[in-house]
Specification:
By secondary structure, this protein is mainly alpha-helical. The chain contains 5 helices and no strands. It has one domain (2-70). The protein is globular. 31% of the residues are buried.
Length: 77
Amino acid sequence: MKGIVKDLNGLPWLVKIILCIPVLDIVWSVGRVINGVAKGSILWTIIGVLTIVPGAAFMWLVDIILVILRGKAFAMT
């Protein structure tokens, strides 16, 4: 599972920006769930699940800002 998170973080900058588009942002949301499970953190897993449906309305904006500023989406360490 950590390989998936590593692969997402290793994508080129332009691809990361494209994946922040509102409909495609589901990739980052699923990545957050996988990251939480890989870390064994219930809190990050719950945050990841909440960003899939209710958080989808605004998380794309948070993700695009964070990808521009630091090169990674929210909670993708």
